[in-house]
Amino acid sequence: MSPEPARRDTRPVVLFSDRTDVDLEPAQRLLAAHGFDSLVAELPVSHDAEDPARLLSARARGAVGLVVGYARISSRILEALPELRVIATTSAGTEMVDVVATQARGIPVIPLRDAATEEVATHSLALMLAVERQLPRATDIVGRGLWTEALTVGAPTSPRRLSGLTLGLLGHGRIARRLTTMAAPLVREVIAHDPRNVGEGATAVSLEELLRRSDILSLHVPLTDGTRGIIGADALASLPTGAVLINCSRGELVDEAALLEALDSGRLRGAGLDVLHGEPPAPAAPLRHHPAVIRTPHVAYWSADSLLSYGLDPARAVIELLRT
């Protein structure tokens, strides 16, 4: 007589922290094919939740792997997961995880590496072009039944030729390197500052020189204690008058009050922001309505291809570590 198959609830569990905008079904099928059950929790995206660990079922508390979307993984949640061996994130950052607590337990945290490199680079370039060419303002004028004169007469600034501009990149990892390839034929020069390494196509400069020379500054660094608020009043004052700021990285890299002041004073001609401090921003948030700001709702990563990778790649990372 052949042995009975193992009960389904005896298989190791991989937990998804929350339901993101990613289709998790392909990742769950992949996990099942490798002998794992998967569960989806509804952990909060805020640190203010009273006791987020209470949202975990008894089965979820036995998870050996955790895939993190938007949820905040605090030390309290980690304490409720005593069997946890690995965490993978659906983003390039790890700021949503209490890494001090994971390091204390020897739990590796694996960020997503390359799922949306092309998408974020493309979105950064699109924001740069839209700000420089004043596309939202032009679209609004046509929608109001007006034409050329309404756009050009009395405009606070006129578009600049890209071929005369210097594009500065703060950080030169995968996304910034892809953006370098895309933008280099359009601009006069691409310069970059990265303490680790600056790749081909960009000239390596100090942070001070980057700020002093960048007609367009695009941010491509992770959010850490060292980079939080790195673009503050002093950094913005160092940029050339009439510079443009692009941020598809993390909203907390920028001091928003200082950015607002730089825009209102005319020191900056505009900004293209896919990320903000509070998402979604409050209805009365000044940057939400500022005429010199083009805002998109944290969608730089978005494409049919990337959405598939955002679920599958973290699942693959978890499987690889747990099976070694």
TrEMBL record:
GO terms for molecular function: NAD binding; phosphoglycerate dehydrogenase activity. InterPro entries: D-iso_2-hydroxyacid_DH_PdxB, D-isomer_DH_CS, D-isomer_DH_NAD-bd, NAD(P)-bd_dom_sf. Keywords: NAD, Oxidoreductase. Gene3D superfamilies: NAD(P)-binding Rossmann-like Domain. It is an enzyme of class 1 (oxidoreductase). Pfam families: 2-Hacid_dh_C. The keyword NAD applies. The keyword Metal-binding does not apply. Residues 125-300 form the D-isomer specific 2-hydroxyacid dehydrogenase NAD-binding domain. It comes from the Bacteria. Its EC number is 1.1.1.95. Belongs to the D-isomer specific 2-hydroxyacid dehydrogenase family. This is D-3-phosphoglycerate dehydrogenase. It comes from Nesterenkonia xinjiangensis.
